[in-house]
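During the reporting period the student researcher (J.K.) took over the structure-prediction task from the postdoctoral fellow and processed the backlog of single-chain submissions. One of the processed entries is reproduced below for the supervisory committee.
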Amino acid sequence: MKIQFKTHIAMAIARLTLFAMLSVSLSASAQVTVRDGMVLADYLTVKFKIPVVEMPIGQNRATASDFKSSMQHIRSFFTRFGTDVVFEKVIEHARAEDTLYVTPSGEVKRLHDWSQVFKVVFPQPVDVWKTIKELQKLTEVEYAQPPIQVVSDLTPNDLHLAGNQWYLPKIRAEQAWDITTGSASIRIALIERGVAPHNDLANKLVAGETGSTGDHGVMVAGVAGAATNNNLGIASLGWNVLLVPMNRTNETGVDADTRNAANPGGVHRANIINCSFKTVTTLPDGRTQSYNYPSMQYAVEDAQAWGALVVASAGNPPPSNDADVVPYTQWPAAYSGVIAVSATNSADQFPSGYNYGNHVDVSGPAIDIQTLYLNNSYIRMDGTSFSAPLTSAIAALIWSVNSNLTATQVANIITSSADDLGPAGWDVHFGYGRINAFRAAAQAAPPSSPASPHPAP
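J.K. obtained the following C-alpha cells:
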C-alpha cells in the first residue's frame, strides 16, 4: 500500500458535430531523435554531488569556463563537446541551504538540493546513453538523465450525440455536492503543456504559467474543474475549485513545474498536483518506454514535503510505437505517496487492454468522458488522463470540507471511501475500488458536522 449528488443543476450537454480524431503526445520529441541506432538529444539533466561551477547567488546560467579550478577534469569532459556548452539551473535561484522546510505545525521536512541540478545544453546533439554512461563514471555526478518526455494517457473516441456525463452519477457527484461544491481556496495544478482558453473555464484558471495552449490540457481541465451551474456545456466534479495550469514552455520542465506548483512561497500554491501522463524515454529503435527520471521523483517528493497531494494516471493500452507491455510500471503513478488511478467503464468493469499493477491505488471512470476541447467546443474521450483529474477533484472536495486534513489523510479517505470492485479488498486492476465522491466528502466532514452522516472513524 503506497498510501493509506441533491443539489439539482442544469448540466446542459453540448452536442456538437465537428470533432477530430486525435493523436496527442506531450513528448519532447523535438529534443530527442534517433539516427543510426543512436538516441540523440541537445541537452541532458545532470545533478552534481558538490558545487562544480562558480555561480553567484541569483545567477542561473554558467559555461564550462566557470568551473572551479579543482574541477578541471569535469571541464575537460564537457569542453570536448565544444566550448559553448551551457549549464542552466533546473530550479531557478535554487540554493544549497534551501533544503529544510518547517510546516505550519512546526514539523521539519527535508527537501532535495536543487542547487546542483543543471540542464546541460550542448552545441550539437549528443549520443544520450553513451554520454550518460560516461557521466556516471565521474565521482562528482549523482545522476545524469535524458530530457524528460511524457505521453498523455488519452485515447481518441468519437462524439456520441445522445450521450451524457454518465460518470458523475456513477461516482455520486450530486450527493457529494449536497455536502460541498468545493472551495475557491483549493487549487489543483495541471501539469500540462498549457490549457487552451474555453468559455466553460471562465474565472477558473489562476496563478498559472502563460504561453502555449494545449488540447490535452483543456480536456483534463474540463474534467477537473469546468465552470458548473452556469447554463453552459458540461459540469465538473470540482465545481468551485480553482485550476493552476503549468505549461512547461518557459525554460522549465515537467520536473520543475511539478515542484514549483506546490511551493508554498511561490505564486502557484497548489494543494493537489494532477499528472495525467507517463514519463517515457526514447529507445534506439525509435519506440518509447516508461522511464523513471530521478529529477521527477525528487520533484514529487519535494511537493509532498510541502504538503501537496500528487495524483497520477495509472496507464492506458500502450500505443503502437511504445515498447511497454501491460502490465507495466508507470511513473509518476508508481512513486510512493502518489495516488495512482486506473480505469473503469460505465458498467464498473476494467476496460480491456488498460494498464494495471501494484502501483494502482484506486480506479475511476475513464471511458466515454465528455469534456472541453479547442475553440470552445466539447468532445468525448477515453483514458486514465480523465480518471486522474476526477480523483484530484475528489481530493479538492475533501479539503473543501476539512482544510485541516493532511495530504496523507486525504489520500486515505479517497482509498477507504472507494467502492470495492473485483476481488475483495485491494487488487491490481481496481486498487481499493472505484472512487466515490459522496462517501469521500462525507468521511471528510468533522464528526460534529451535521453534513456527515458517516463520520470518519
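The committee noted the following: Residues 3-30, 158-162, 449-457 have pLDDT under 50 and may be disordered.
J.K. will present the remaining backlog at the next meeting.
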